[in-house]
Amino acid sequence: MSDLAARLRDGDLSVAPAVLNLVENRAPAAQAEIAELLADVSPAALGGEAAGHVVGVTGPPGAGKSTLLSQLVAGWRARGLSVAVLAVDPSSKRSGGALLGDRARIEYDPADRAIFIRSMAAGDRLGGLAPATRAAAHALAAAFDVVVIETVGVGQSETEVAEVADTVAVVVQPGSGDVLQFLKSGIMEIPDVLVVTKADLGQVATSARRDLHAALRSLGARDTRVVAVSSLAPPQGIDRLLDAIDAHRDASDVAARRLRARRLHALADFTAEHGARGLRALGGRRAAERWLERQDPGLDVPALERALAEHAGVV
Ligand SMILES: Nc1nc2c(ncn2[C@@H]2O[C@H](COP(=O)(O)OP(=O)(O)O)[C@@H](O)[C@H]2O)c(=O)[nH]1
Ligand SMILES: [Mg+2]
Fold it and tell me: What does pTM read for this prediction?
C-alpha cells in the first residue's frame, strides 16, 4: 500500500497537502502513483465506502458561498468534525475573471490541524470539476469527517458536483430569479439542500425563500430542504443548515449513490478519451451502462476505466 494511503487510512490529517500535491501532478510518472493511491482508498480496499461525508456547495458567483463556508467550517469543528474544503477556482479559466468581482475568502483558524482548505483549478467546462478534484475528494474522504467541494455555477454545472458529492447544497442569494426559472424549467437539477443566503437583508430574503419553496413543492421535490442563512455577525441559520446537510445523508443511500457515480464517471472519462468509436465498441451507451452494473461494486474509477477499455478492445 502507498504511504499516503496508509496515513489516510490511519486518519492522519497532516497528509492532506501531500495528497493534493500528488493528485495535481500531471507528470506521466505520477499517474501510476495516483492510481495506486485511489485503489488503496477504494471501497474494495477499505472494505466499504469511505466514511467522510462529501458535500458539494455550489451556486452563482457572489451568492455568499465562501462567507457561508467560513461559518459552516466553524460549525462542523464545534461538532467535533474534521473538515477539508476543496475550493474550485474558476479564475484559472479564461472566462472566470469577469465573473468574480467582490469575493470573500474562507476564514478559518490556521492553527487548527483538523481543517484543510485548498483552491484547485477548474475543469475544462464552466463549473466542471478537474479529475484532480474528484481524486482529492475520494482520497480525503478516507480521513476527514467532512469533505466540501465548492464550485461556482448554476444550471447544469451542478450536475458534475452531484456525481462526486453525497449531498449537494445549492446556494442562492435573494432576488436571484434565474435560479427560480432554472428550477421550474428543469435546466437545474433539484438540489438536496437549497440555501438562501443574506437573510439579514430581511423581506427580500424571506420572499426568496418562500418562492423557492413553492417552486420545489410544485415540482414534487418534497425532500429538498430550503434553509435561509446569514453569514454576517450574528450568523443565523447555520446550525439548521448543518442539520439539514446531515439529515440528507442520513436519509440517503450513500453507497448506492457513490457506486452509480463511479460508474458514470468511468464511462464519461472513457468516452472523453475514446469518443463515439469507443462507445460503439462497447455496444452503445446503454449497453455500456448495463455492463458496468455487472462489475465489482468495490472498483474505483481508474479500475473501471481500465475494465471498459479492455472490454471495448481499445487497450
Ligand atoms: N448582507 C450579507 N452579505 C453577505 C452575506 N454573505 C456574503 N455576503 C457578501 O456577499 C459578497 C460575496 O460573498 P462570497 O462569499 O465571496 O460569495 P461567493 O462568490 O459565492 O463565494 C461579499 O461581499 C460578502 O461579504 C450575508 O449573509 N449577508
Ligand atoms: Mg467564493
Answer: 0.92
